[in-house]
Amino acid sequence: MVITDETIEYVGILAKLELSGEEKEQAKKDMTNMLEYVGKLNELDTDGVEAMSHAFPISNVFREDEVTNGDDRENLLKNAPDKKDGCYRVPKTFD
Questions:
Q1: Is 34 part of any domain?
Q2: Structural domain boundaries enclosing 33
Q3: Residue 65 domain-assigned?
Q4: Cα(36)–Cα(34) distance, rounded to whole angstroms?
Q5: H-type helices in 40-93, by residue range?
Q6: How far apart are CA 20 and CA 4, in angstroms?
Q7: Half-sphere exposure of residue 8, counting CA atoms within 13 Å on the CB side?
Q8: In a domain, 74, yes or no
């Protein structure tokens, strides 16, 4: 793939950059070098290599959700300064 001036202009618009002529030329060289480097991956023989989504052999690392403290409403309400019908009672904040 060849990086053209139009490509650099388009990328500059997408990135909301105002590049000088010198910066555009440098960006063009840099992008060309990056694409050439990535293009080297096409030279690799990947036949017989299994596709993978992660570099490490990790399966689900999340634990199952387990409820460890049941309904302990009575203990929670012991320190409440005021309660009504099993709930905290607080002063009105508006009328």
A1: yes
A2: 5-43
A3: no
A4: 5
A5: 73-77
A6: 15
A7: 19
A8: no
